Queue: 2 jobs
Job 1
Amino acid sequence: MAGLLTVLMAVVVVTSVMGAIHPPSNVETIDPTTLHLSGEFVESNLGTAQEPDGSLTARLVADQYAFVPNCVKLAVDTPVKFRLTSVDVVHGFLLPTTNVNTMVVPGYVAEVRTRFTRPGIYRMPCNEFCGNGHHGMWTHVVVVPKQQFPALAATERTSCVQQ
Ligand code: CUA
């Protein structure tokens, strides 16, 4: 009995420590205090970028209580890579009916790869309780037919945020 208890306690301790220090979606680290100053997640680099191979990369920053940008434009039948990070607390990014579901943890870059098979508007509530405004934190992903997606230069970014 005592041996069994010891083994079970050891399993709990080891898995919690191993799981907690390695967020499951990604182990790429980033300094959340300087996101706005330089690097991949400066404001001008957020939104959708087109890679040389034609695939798309969408970068978002999560904070209390919004995703930036709050509307992401993508093309159907195209490889898509989401890269997200948080400036404050843990948020969640989940697109219903797709494989996209990740925690967005400050200090880490969350990366998810997918491919949309149908055009449409995918609404995306924050999926991790992050404070009093959690219920109002949401964004949406608009997937358009390929011919409606603009060709982007290497430095250009696009979104569907209404100006
Ligand atoms: Cu952000 Cu809940």
Job 2
Amino acid sequence: MKRTGGSHLSRRRVARVVENLKPSGIRKFFDLVIGREDVISLGVGEPDFAVPWRIREEMIYSLEKGYTSYTSNHGLPELREAIAEYYKRFGLDTNPEQVIVTAGVSEAIDLALRTVVEPGDGVLIPEPCYVSYKPLSILCGAEVVTIPTNPDFKLNYDRIRQYVNEKSKVLIVNYPANPTGVSYSKKELEEIADAVLEFDLLVISDEIYAEFTYKGRHMSIASLNGMEDRVVVLNGFSKAFAMTGLRIGYAIAPADVLLGMLKIHQYCMLCAPITGQIGALEALKCLDEVERIKAEYMRRRNYVVKKLREVFDVNMPDGAFYVFPDISSTGMSSEEFAEKLLIEKGVAVVPGNAFGECGEGYIRAAYAVKFERLKEAVERIIDFAKEHGKS
Ligand code: PLP
């Protein structure tokens, strides 16, 4: 049969909504440094620790035994049970039926948004924020309203009240936060919860850095009075257990939302990878390892903040492994600063505007590199600042 009509699709190939998405500003810088040995990268949020040995051993053993099948769509029952038990640590009393295991928190964010957002619904996103919230909301047809939070980078009642409108349905919170390291006290969370109740919102709470909370213990917003039926908690194993490539995250959600998320998950993912799930189950028995890693991050945080304050204004991060210094006094834009720093000093950081417009004037530096390398990178940043007029 002769085919007619030419080799190209005559209609638009890539959907408009996808074509209009901006590529991630983090990846751009990541790609620039691939293969450059001379560069110290404080760019991506990738832990520099190997997965604790006990976890690796458990995964290797499972492969030797031939455990390479699908699991239940929900995730391994033992893992869901262990996650429900683990979350008591953050004040939340939940049960395995409310847990779904996903391919990283990334998938969980997507599932949560796709489950609750209808075209035209409002999603409130405090900025600066993790790069996927806005694009994934837009893909659901959401009307995104960003809440600028500089200079303290904290969400609070007044800021929510100022930006909420009649379409607002979902509020995304993330703490300890990427890129700012901000976290909240119980009182501050209660203030946010008051706004959630008053404006009848549903919260998607990304708590992926919960283990790296430097003062006290992380508290889930879902554990506050009145919040149990309004919060989808997201967390995972990428950061706390350095398991980024194993792709295990999870959500703890009210029954109706969980069911919706499960439906999408079973069609688009089927299940999270079994090897990672087995590793995750072992990980929850290794919390002492996390304490050790946290102590090292805290040492690095203290060092980086103290040194960078010689040249920049820097908020003390409460958690995660990022600092977010204000570089506006150099007169350079965030992108200009990051590009020149890379070219002149071989240090990669991410321009603050990759996390939203109000991140302009800042850079994000991840202290997830070995202490000696970190010291070298910080010294190069300070030299760079001084050469560009800072004293
Ligand atoms: N949420 C936040 C705030 C992050 O910083 C990241 C990764 O950097 C993710 C989610 C994605 O995590 P995962 O590797 O579990 O998909």
